[in-house]
Fold this sequence. Notes:
Low-confidence stretches: none
Strand content: 25-35%
Mean pLDDT: 95
Shape: globular
Distance between the termini: 50 Å
InterPro entries: FAD-oxidoreductase/Apoptosis, FAD/NAD-bd_sf, FAD/NAD-binding_dom, FAD/NAD-linked_Rdtase_dimer_sf, Reductase_C
Keywords: FAD, Flavoprotein, Oxidoreductase
Helix content: 10-25%
Organism: Intrasporangium calvum
Number of helices: 11
Domain Reductase C-terminal: 323-411
Largest sheet: 6 strands, antiparallel
Radius of gyration: 22 Å
Number of strands: 27
Domain FAD/NAD(P)-binding: 7-304
Amino acid sequence: xxxxxxxxxxxxxxxxxxxxxxxxxxxxxxxxxxxxxxxxxxxxxxxxxxxxxxxxxxxxxxxxxxxxxxxxxxxxxxxxxxxxxxxxxxxxxxxxxxxxxxxxxxxxxxxxxxxxxxxxxxxxxxxxxxxxxxxxxxxxxxxxxxxxxxxxxxxxxxxxxxxxxxxxxxxxxxxxxxxxxxxxxxxxxxxxxxxxxxxxxxxxxxxxxxxxxxxxxxxxxxxxxxxxxxxxxxxxxxxxxxxxxxxxxxxxxxxxxxxxxxxxxxxxxxxxxxxxxxxxxxxxxxxxxxxxxxxxxxxxxxxxxxxxxxxxxxxxxxxxxxxxxxxxxxxxxxxxxxxxxxxxxxxxxxxxxxxxxxxxxxxxxxxxxxxxxxxxxxxxxxxxxxxxxxxxxxxxxxxxxxxxxxxxxxxxxxxx
Length: 416
């Protein structure tokens, strides 16, 4: 790579910042340009629904680095401008202000965008989605004692916002068309535990119900009408019905796209010199032996760094066991592993869920035992390394010993 050809990074999140860290550890001289459509420094998104939403942390705590760090590392910041068109043949990127950037290598860390709720009334004032720091600040300002907050969707974002709203004294109702929160992620049994957790903190859950429309007065939302005809008073509505990878730039450029931008284990796309990382990347994970797309902090943190290493020519085989975490009320939880969609798993509990201190494993039968695909702890700390080892090594263990909390996870003998 010629030193006159910059590395261009498209994206304003953690994956972009981590890629720069990796690049600068190996090469202090190659020009680096970061293009971010928000007029903000790259920042982490988890605090937006956790510490920042709770009011425990300032917005600045979410920034990956202060402005001085980019100056000290000679990174040109092109903020408040979007990437409009990518031409891999000429290695040029056209920006929304009409300018063009030539690149030697390019990283697509474009993240994901919101799925919108397609019902009447979502254009009313005080109806929010949570994706940006601006969104977080606006929602936080609405969480006041006695206000009626309706959350549409019982995914991770919906549950974390519900916990923050209750922390601030708001009255909270969650509307979810599935029979349990997080049903597609953790299944019915664990999803029911999440439902009980939120009910115990005063949240009303309307499960198995969709939303027919939102109604308002003078342009502001006042009511959520459910599919059963129930009318829920609403001073504030937060919609969390999922996200989708931001692949338009890659698709228009002719890159291979399938549930994200398809990349290999070194995070290389189908176009020479173009890489992808974070939410948008569907990468081949050599540990799991399949392509995976993960929408969580750890993948942006680790994948962005791995992409930066790959860009500067290091040998990369990016194969982590997927990991994420959540904080809700007095509950801290971590999850590690990967359950392919459609896999029929058994749930094994270690400890009593009613105690709010337990572990859960998603397993499949194999030989005389079970193989752990994923595990989650609730307030049982310092266990994730052992869970990841079970997943990584495809260890077959005895079901009863796995459920016995008196037996350390790293002392589970493999069975044939």
